[in-house]
Amino acid sequence: MAYLALVTGASVGLGTELARQLAERRVNLVLVARDEARLERLARRLRHDHGVAVEVLAADLTAHDGLERAARRVADPDSPVDILISNAGFGVYDGFESSRLSDERRLHELLSWAPLRLAHAAIPGMLARRRGWIMNVASVAAFTPSGTYGAAKAATVSLSRSLNARYRGTGVRVTALCPGLLDTEFHVRMGEDHLPRLPRIAWADTRRVAREGLRGLHRGRAVIVSDWRYRLIRRLIPMLPDRLLERATTTGD
To answer: What Gene3D superfamilies is this protein classified in (predicted)?
Structure first.
């Protein structure tokens, strides 16, 4: 039996890599993002390379109509989604005192409300079928005082943990994948001046993060901190004094 996965934020970066690795596993796909032309190019490549069925759903998940279209697709009983991956995201670089409130609202709607809405659409059908997998892409920023981005990701981690605890005995598994810095368009889209000036070793490999995330999802792990360097950082965070952690993580927020 072929499974069907819906991946948001599929047009670039980690979303594209998650879609590719799912296609390698012969999972059919629904690709969701705003850029329809990019989605279509990716869909053609995945169909050609892996022989899977791929749908394209162009939608802005920060807009009510776009999110509801995606939710209806997730809940469609005639073509059920077995694997839901909420990966779409962006960041607000400006400090809290100077950022636009509309950007802050869009950030939280995309990073925390959209995963909740899509999970709410997916779970009833998954429970009825007694199987389903939901991955919400969060961040190691969820474990630090790193501004509104970290706050939104912390909500996603908390949601994922609570849903996994509630449903893990039913065949439905919910996971928060928490990567660190990835060399994708995420930072480029905020502007070249906003790219973190860090050594190459600080950047995690997108392929490895996707692979670890899918493996952890299959195993039913509630939270996955991906890549060894960020797992190490995660263990160190509770040992750091609050003021030191705050200074290290709020610069430029």
So the answer is: NAD(P)-binding Rossmann-like Domain (3.40.50.720)
The bridge status of strand 132-137 relative to strand 83-86 is parallel
The number of domains in the chain is 1
Q: Cβ neighbours of residue 99 under 8 Å, at least 6 residues apart?
A: 92, 148
| Domain CATH number, residue 32 | 3.40.50.720
pTM of the model: 0.84
Would you say the C-alpha torsion 26, 27, 30, 35 has a positive or negative sign?
negative
- Residue 49 one-letter amino acid: D
| One pLDDT digit (tens) per residue for the chain, 253 residues | 789 999 999 999 999 999 999 999 999 999 999 999 999 999 999 999 999 999 999 999 999 999 999 999 999 999 999 999 999 988 787 788 888 998 899 999 999 999 999 999 999 999 999 999 999 999 888 777 668 888 999 999 999 999 999 999 999 999 999 987 766 544 444 444 455 555 555 556 889 999 999 999 999 999 998 765 655 555 655 544 455 444 545 544 3
